[in-house]
Amino acid sequence: MNEPVRVVVVDDQELVLAGFAALLSGAPDMTVVGQARQGEEALRLVRATRPDVVLMDVRMPVLDGIEATRRIRADPRLSDTRVIILTTFGLDEYVFGALRAGAVGFLLKDTPPEELLRSVRVVMAGESLLSPSITRRLVEVFAAAPAPAPARTMPELTDRETDVLALVAQGLSNADIAARLQIGPATVKTYVSRLLTKLGGTARVHLVIAAYESGLAS
């Protein structure tokens, strides 16, 4: 039997913290190795326990979730620790900052229990965390922004990689992209993996950000 996924939960709201911790502890394949209520406490805890996954709140006293995420990802001892941001749609600007800091994705605080557990398992499997519906929400945020971010330099992509990236930025799932391009879903997954490598991303949302920052999507 595989070792349970070791999780640290970070949130300054007592009820949210207790609820997530109880849910994760009740899953047979997960264990909560610590809880923290602010960023500096979270850093000390993560460095001491080296969990597989951190569920990280954004707005917290002393040290916010963005900076805590950046410091975790900058620590070579924590290279295997994955950070998932906990947020609401009203905190989108913080979410983008945290994703750029190295988080693998985000969950809403009203995420159904079964979806939260599934998301932790997906992240542990090295797959994309974001569902097409959440990706589309990110697209909407970019589209509604009053001014686009400065264009970033895009590495050289093949025509097919460019096609796949543009469709990812539209919020399409791998199955939808496969149907649109008339290729197999496994082939799409390969292209997505190549794009993540070329663009230095760790989750599907990073491809959305890259597409908008480069001007490929608008």
TrEMBL record:
Q: Which domain of life is it from?
A: Bacteria
Q: Which InterPro entries match?
A: CheY-like_superfamily, NreC/VraR/RcsB-like_REC, Sig_transdc_resp-reg_C-effctor, Sig_transdc_resp-reg_receiver, Tscrpt_reg_LuxR_C, WalR-like
Residues where 4-aspartylphosphate is found: D57
Alphabetical list of CDD domains matching this protein: LuxR_C_like, REC_NarL-like
Keywords of the record, alphabetical order, are: DNA-binding, Phosphoprotein, Transcription, Transcription regulation
Ranges of residues in domain HTH luxR-type: 150-215
Q: Does the keyword Phosphoprotein apply?
A: yes
Q: Response regulatory domain: from which residue to which, for each copy?
A: 6-124
Matching Pfam families, A to Z? GerE (PF00196), Response_reg (PF00072)
What is the protein's name according to its record? Response regulator transcription factor
Organism expressing this protein natively? Nonomuraea maheshkhaliensis
Instruction: Give the source lineage, highest ranks first.
Output: Bacteria, Bacillati, Actinomycetota, Actinomycetes, Streptosporangiales
